[in-house]
Structure formats: C-alpha cells, structure tokens
Amino acid sequence: MANELGVEPKTVHVPSQIIALYDKEMGANLLGDKSHSMIFDNSKIKKIVPEFRAEIPFKTGAAEVVQWFRENMLYKGPDAGVENWMNRLIEDWEGFKSFRGNVK
Known about the structure:
6 helices, mainly alpha, extended
C-alpha cells in the first residue's frame, strides 16, 4: 500500500495496551478481536464453488483501492490531530524503551 501511495513506511511496534492509554477507542479495538493472530483463507468457497479463482494480485488490488479512494473520498490530507497523538505516543514509547534500557 505504501508503494502505491508513494511513501516510505516507518513502522514502530507499540504494545496495544500502551496505545489504549493514549486513545481508549483505538485501544478497545486493538485489545478486542484484533489482539489475536488469524489466518484467513478461501478454502470453503473453493469447495462450494470450485470454479472460483482469485485472480487479482495484491499489488493490483492495492492500486485499485488507492485509485478508488482518490476518486471517491473527500481526502484533504493527513489529520493533524491524529498525527500529533501518534507522534507523541511514539516519542514517549521510544523514550521509555531508552530509559528502561539504562536502568540497572
């Protein structure tokens, strides 16, 4: 998705419990059903409809999703409020990890 958007992803792992301290609604979503790893497959539909074939590669699907959003949504750029709290969360988390690493 980042490639389709022309951006370089910057990933940071922050535990869901910490995210919940900064945003209760997002934390509730993360700590609910999203807290467990899952594997999704289409084996059931293939048994029922053997002629079904998923033919769109992820890269093509990602391009279609990005195009649809650009054409159909009133996107005005990043949400400054969301960016600010995410940046604060990341800075705090990175600072905590550094502090914890220095405690003997």
